[in-house]
């Protein structure tokens, strides 16, 4: 599934959308059946840690609402 592919920097599409603060893309990706919220990149950052560092509070709320692990 292409939504789980890593790019050359080991970033999945959801992490990329969070990094660039693309709320519409995050919303779309969060509603894809089977999307992983727990993938960790080579830098040990999760989708949530990327969102906390680079995104808006709204994206963080959306991730939490979809059950992302906070640990």
Can you give a write-up of this model?
The structure is a single chain. The protein has four helices and no strands. Helix 1 runs antiparallel to helix 2 and helix 3 runs antiparallel to helix 4. The chain is globular and about 25 Å long. It has 71 residues and is mainly α. The longest helix has 9 residues.
Element layout with pairings:
Layout: H1 13-19, H2 23-30, H3 47-54, H4 57-65
Helix pairs in contact: 1-2, 1-3, 2-4, 3-4
Main features:
0% strand, disordered N terminus, mainly alpha, 71 residues, 4 helices
H/E series, N to C?
A: HHHH
Percentage of residues in DSSP E strands: under 5%
Largest sheet: none
Quaternary structure classification = single chain
Discrete helix count? 4
Instruction: Give the strand tally.
Output: 0
Enumerate the spans where pLDDT stays under 50 for 5 or more consecutive residues: 1-10
Average pLDDT metric? 81
Q: N-to-C terminal Cα separation, in Å?
A: 26 Å
Global outline: globular
Quick overview:
With 71 residues, the chain is mainly alpha-helical. The protein has helices at 13-19, 23-30, 47-54, 57-65.
């Amino acid at each position: 599934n292409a939504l789980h592919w890593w790019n050359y920097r080991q970033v999945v599409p959801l992490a990329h959308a969070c990094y660039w603060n693309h709320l519409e893309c995050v919303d779309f990706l969060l509603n894809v059946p089977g999307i992983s919220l727990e993938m960790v990149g080579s830098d040990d950052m999760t989708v949530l840690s990327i969102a906390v560092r680079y995104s808006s509070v709204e994206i963080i709320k959306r991730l939490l609402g979809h059950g992302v692990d906070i640990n």
